[in-house]
Design goal:
- The complex is a heterodimer of chains A (244) and B (112).
- By secondary structure, chain A is mainly alpha-helical.
- In chain A, helix 2 runs antiparallel to helix 10.
- Helix content of chain A is 75%, strand content 0%.
- With 112 residues, chain B is mainly alpha-helical.
- The chains are: A mainly alpha (244), B mainly alpha (112).
- At the A-B interface, helix 2, helix 3, helix 4, helix 5 and helix 6 of A face helix 1, helix 2, helix 3 and helix 4 of B.
């Protein structure tokens, strides 16, 4: 299982650096570029840089941030916006539920885990789910922190850069950068899951997501997650049993 | 900076705070519930499947039925760029960066 391993680190400090080193590369470039797209969206929607930076700092989950800007721009009510962000980001709960237990160490105070949870989003989750099982438990949270905080800072930088670049780059480029996020998430899905259960959940989710959004734009995503996840789990289990 | 207190801005900042709260809600709840979850149990795997199902549903929705400015791009452009990204990703032996660059580049050229 633990193929993406590498040795454990000499100390928790080493784990922080190791996490940052793993983030430095494709994750930093891709998330930075995604947030350049968000920053220019903020500018083009007529909002200030302060708002953009606050949003990236306080939410740091891009699809919800984009939904917020777009819904506010068309005059949606605060209630509608809140519900939309809530439903868009539901994936974060099962992600946190599966990563947080890996940080469970009697020496780690709960509040640290609650703080780390703020930084759990797709990129850092995928990386930590791969790497953490290969590390001694006391190095997992530091590794995750090193990885996530560098990404978080990059996202802030990307937001600012996009804000200043907006208007200077042609519109197709800024639209392309907004589209980079779904493309990136799609390739995360092509990379991440190795078990049949998760693969089945992904395929079902890709189909059900848009289909159920047409049926019920409000609840479509939530229903998709539960149905695709549960059916995928069941189907994957069945196939695993049949193959022995 | 003075008119940040204007009514229009207030609404935006309220939305930003509500959005941040709505986002952390799931994360905080996840930590609280995870106390009862044993890694590597069947329940754990089911929850991970739901995470992937939710992410996949979101990706499908964002590509096929996007909100905002991307709504005005052609469906072929979005599906085509996604296909280019996947194709390049697999042709380059799962190079994520190459796939993303190709997919984003295809989108930009398509709508130019």
């Amino acid at each position: 299982m633990n193929t993406a391993s590498g040795p454990s680190f000499a100390s928790p400090g080493g784990a922080i650096l190791g996490g940052a080193r793993d983030a430095f590369g494709v994750p930093v470039i891709v998330l930075g570029a995604s947030y350049v797209g968000f920053g220019s969206l903020v500018r083009e929607s007529g909002f200030g840089l302060g708002f953009g930076l606050f949003s990236t700092f306080s939410a740091w989950a891009l699809p919800g941030q984009v939904a917020l800007v777009e819904l506010y721009s068309v005059g949606s009510s605060l209630f509608i916006i809140t519900i939309a962000v809530l439903l868009t980001n539901a994936r974060l709960m099962p992600m946190v539920m599966t990563l947080a237990p890996m940080f469970r160490d009697p020496a780690t105070p709960r509040w640290k885990v609650y703080m780390a949870a703020h930084c759990i989003a797709v990129t850092a989750w995928v990386a930590a789910m791969k790497r953490c099982p290969t590390l001694p438990v006391e190095q997992r949270l530091p590794y995750f922190a090193g990885f996530a905080v560098l990404l978080w800072a990059t996202s802030m930088g990307g937001t600012a850069a996009g804000f200043f670049l907006a208007g200077q780059v042609p519109e197709p480029v800024s639209l392309g950068l907004v589209f980079l996020n779904p493309i990136y998430f799609m390739l995360v899905l092509a990379t991440g899951p190795q078990q049949r259960t998760k693969l089945a959940a992904v395929i079902l989710g890709l189909v059900l997501g848009p289909a159920l959004h047409l049926v019920t734009p409000d609840w479509g995503l939530l229903i998709t997650g539960v149905v695709a996840g549960t059916a995928g789990y069941g189907l994957g289990r069945l196939m695993e049993k049949r193959r022995g | 900076m003075v008119d940040w207190a204007g009514e229009w801005e207030t609404g935006l900042w309220l939305a930003a705070v509500a959005g941040a709260g709505a986002t952390y809600f799931w994360r905080g709840l996840g930590v609280a519930i995870s106390r009862h979850l044993r890694p590597s149990g069947p329940l754990f795997e089911w929850v991970a499947c739901i995470a992937y199902g939710l992410l996949a549903g979101l990706v499908g929705r964002m590509i096929v039925l996007p909100l905002g400015a991307l709504q005005h791009t052609a469906m072929e452009a979005r599906l085509g760029s996604a296909a280019v990204a996947l194709g390049v990703y697999f042709l380059t032996r799962r190079n994520q960066f190459a796939g993303i660059a190709a997919g984003t580049g295809a989108m930009i050229l398509w709508i130019w």
